[in-house]
Amino acid sequence: MSTRTPARRVLSSCLATRPRPKRRPRVCLQVTSGVRWNSVKQQPGSDFVHFPGAVHSKFTTTLNFTSPSEKNAMPTYRILDQSGQIVDKSREPLNLSDSEILKMYKDMLTVSILDPIMFQAQRQGRLSFYMVSAGEEGIAVGSAAALRKEDVIFAQYRETGVFQQRGFRLDEFMNQLFANRLDNGLGRNMPVHYGSKDLNIHTISSPLATQLPQAAGAAYALKMEHLQNPSEEPRVVCCYFGEGAASEGDFHAALNIAATRSCPVIFLCRNNGYAISTPTLEQYRGDGIASRGVGYGIDTIRVDGNDIFAVHEATARARKLATEGSMRPVLIEAMSYRVSHHSTSDDSSKYRELREVESWKRRDNPITRLRKYMEGKGLWNEELEKKEQETVKKAVLKAFNAAEREKRPALRNLFDGVYEEMTEELDSQIQELAGIIEKYPNEYDVGDFEGGREGLFKEKR
Fold first, then answer.
1. Phi and psi (nearest 5°) for 45?
2. Second label for 92, Cα 20 to 30 Å away, from 1, 24, 106, 434?
3. Of 54, 60, 8, 59, nearest to 32 (Cα)?
4. Measuring CA to CA, how many Å separate 279 from each of 1, 138, 243, 285, 433?
5. Distances (CA, A) of 35 to 30, 32, 165, 326, 453
6. Integer CA distances (angstroms), 43 to 39, 46, 149, 279, in order
7. Residue 221 to residue 154: CA distance in whole angstroms
8. Whole-number Å distance between alpha carbons of 150 and 239
9. Where are the beta strands (DSSP E) in 295-395?
């Protein structure tokens, strides 16, 4: 019988076989933008701090605490004003063709028509849950249009416009919402929790902010992939979240690891004013979410989320920054207003006045703003608007009716997908369930499920 050498002894013996390195002067290591550099220890008479944790901080003899009130709020970048006019007439022309602008508008319009139909369907008991994107369509569509199809996306739950822009079909939306047999997730997730492997969009999950550290990790994997294949076009991760999610610990962990590992990830925050019923003034005291990006050493910008051109341009620039050199993360805070209730489980009239919501609807929203711009350029008019709305509504209702009539996924999907091969325990549970259904057919009517009772024994599709 062989004996094991203790781990500590093995490590010692391995180290003993290596030549000992020559002694070198002690240095302090600091990582900046992914590049390690050496800073000599504090020199006599220096005016600046050279501690590892605070480099380039000048010494002072004045005892003064920095107060947030002394700093100006970070500016908000915009291109279009509320009237659909370009603010800076001297700026370069938009890097968007008329066809691209028209697609962005039609994508936002589709989401704005889809949302109220599905909201009412939930109120009628035909859906269990729904969330609308009213007022935030420009953030989703504008940012997605600036990314490449190969880029990876982690969404929260108000990114219907991202899916629409990437080519998620209406029937795919409906199949997921009704959790029928054609649903990619086979009915295992809540409504609005879309996902698409073909479109490089990870499936949405309900726990708040979990997608943030996942996105940082995925971005690091893309970075390693590019280092191994430098001839291939680098990819980025774009991670969406609301300002409420930024109160979670996962937000801070994600930004820190992305910054210290120089991960090519765009963190895109939708600051819509409310985390369910909690207004921003009760969520934080700092300068929004953008100031936190700067605190983590991340390039940051704040944009007008109701200006789809500003969102698109900022995201395009962020993607360029993220893929340059040794790569790095970027934070975008898109300012908007959540016109709708948080979800069908929420009644926002309990915590905000209706006139506040109506004021935002009349005063400013991304669809109206872009439409005014397009009308000024002769790209759109009332006749085209009416025709497009009718076309989209018919397509939505057609997909709605088809998905609602489909059967639910086979009962075997309750057990599949956990292990590569079905375990004995799961097999016995399937047999037990089949016996109960057979014994009590009136109490367990499974006719709406694909294959009925026999669907328990069919292999997953």
1. 80, 5
2. 106
3. 54
4. 68, 21, 10, 12, 47
5. 8, 5, 36, 8, 60
6. 10, 6, 51, 49
7. 14
8. 14
9. 299-304, 330-335
Residues in the chain: 461
**Position of tokens 């089949």?**
434
Q: What is the dihedral of CA 306, 308, 311, 312, to 10 degrees?
A: 170
Measure the CA–CA gap between 242 and 148, rounded to whole angstroms.
23
Q: Do 100 and 316 contact (CB within 8 A), yes or no?
A: no
Amino acid identity of 458?
Answer: K
Q: How many CB atoms lie within 10 A of CB 76?
A: 17
The strand pair at 152-154 and 76-77 is best described as unpaired
Residue ranges, CATH 3.40.50.970, the chain: 75-405
How are beta strands 48-51 and 54-58 bridged, if at all? antiparallel
CATH top class, domain 75-405: alpha beta
Distance in angstroms (rounded) separating the CA atoms of residues 400 and 16: 71
Q: Is 40 exposed, middle or buried (0-12, 13-18, 19+ CB in 10 A)?
A: exposed
Q: Using alpha carbons, list the distances in angstroms from residue 294 to 216, 221, 291, 298, 381.
A: 17, 24, 5, 5, 43
* Mutual angle of helices 308-323 and 98-123, in 10-degree steps: 110
Instruction: Name the E strands within 143-210.
Output: 152-154, 201-202
Q: Give SS3 for 115.
A: helix
> Would you write out the chain's pLDDT as a tens digit for each of its 461 residues?
444 444 443 333 333 444 444 444 343 333 344 455 555 466 777 777 777 777 778 888 899 998 888 889 999 999 999 999 999 999 999 999 999 999 999 999 999 999 999 999 999 999 999 999 999 999 999 999 999 999 999 999 999 999 999 999 999 999 999 999 999 999 999 999 999 999 999 999 999 999 999 999 999 999 999 999 999 999 999 999 999 999 999 999 999 999 999 999 999 999 999 999 998 889 998 999 999 999 999 999 999 999 999 999 999 999 999 999 999 999 999 999 999 899 999 999 999 988 888 888 877 899 999 999 999 999 999 999 999 999 999 999 999 999 999 999 999 999 998 898 999 999 999 999 999 999 999 999 999 999 999 999 976 55
